[in-house]
Amino acid sequence: MKKTLSLSKVYQFLEPGPVVMVSTSYKNKNDIMTMSWHTMMDFEPPIVGCVISNRNYSFENLMKTNECVINIPTAALAKKVVGCGNTSGRKINKFNQFHLTPKLASKVKAPLIDECYVNLECKVIDKKLGKKYNFFILQVLKAWINPAEKNQKTLHHHGKGVFSISGKKIKLPSKMK
Amino acid sequence: MKKTLSLSKVYQFLEPGPVVMVSTSYKNKNDIMTMSWHTMMDFEPPIVGCVISNRNYSFENLMKTNECVINIPTAALAKKVVGCGNTSGRKINKFNQFHLTPKLASKVKAPLIDECYVNLECKVIDKKLGKKYNFFILQVLKAWINPAEKNQKTLHHHGKGVFSISGKKIKLPSKMK
Fold this sequence. Notes:
The structure is a homodimer of 177-residue chains.
Chain A: E1 3-4, H1 11-14, E2 20-26, E3 29-35, E4 38-42, E5 47-51, H2 57-65, E6 67-72, H3 78-86, H4 94-97, E7 102-103, E8 112-113, E9 118-126, H5 130-133, E10 135-145, E11 155-157, E12 162-171
Antiparallel strand pairs in A: 1-10, 2-3, 2-6, 4-5, 5-10, 6-9, 7-8, 9-10, 11-12
């Protein structure tokens, strides 16, 4: 069962650079894209920058709807993550193909991927660099977390299907936010 | 001893989201900034987007010189990484304070941090979003790696000095670059 994740804490989940799955919906057709090229841009409201290539089916959906959900999968979902990366929404429905569950979001029409332990409902707030760099700036409107999976291991892509899985945590005295 | 890292492979080191140390130099004064807010934007030449707040001393250096080096530290350097994040170049020389070694770069005036296992010499190619979002787009001109440390563990920040250390690697059949 998911709970609300405070918007002030969203950066703690994206900052370490996990592979994410971006879900979109246009004319009731859902799609999923695997993505590693994203960065936090501000803390609160959480602003996220990401690169979504115009070769991706999701690019069109995002351009048309200005909405998406960033879903963070645990390492246990690695096969589905790579499956979504290897295929195109032009040809298949990825929710069906990879047995992923679309769930109604609260602020956007794009669906949450229920199997992911964190879901971030986003709207596009700036696409000035969309044409030149395929770069979109998103604002997180609403965030969800499965509290039972709070300290999950995440996937970090090194290219060509090689991932490192996040390992042990350390804490050092820090003034950093 | 560092060797040239092929520009076509740079993304494999930044894509997984490691904490990096950005070094700059202005009027022979070197500075270092700890940074987690970065993303790959293109493969080759490697283009990197990053957020460097205007509250940071490094922001001024970058604005004035349009050059920097992105240095990737191993987990073994965690204390120095956090030290550089906790202090300001306005008050101290971080190379001296944290016993880090500046080394001459080949394409830029900013120094490499010798202790980091990967160094990426960069020039700013776009700062259109610099004022509004503190967002800089960099092109990697030259990349270095210590081959003996190729498979190093990296640090991934979750906020407030909590880091996960990259763990074991897996490989899945993938069409992804």
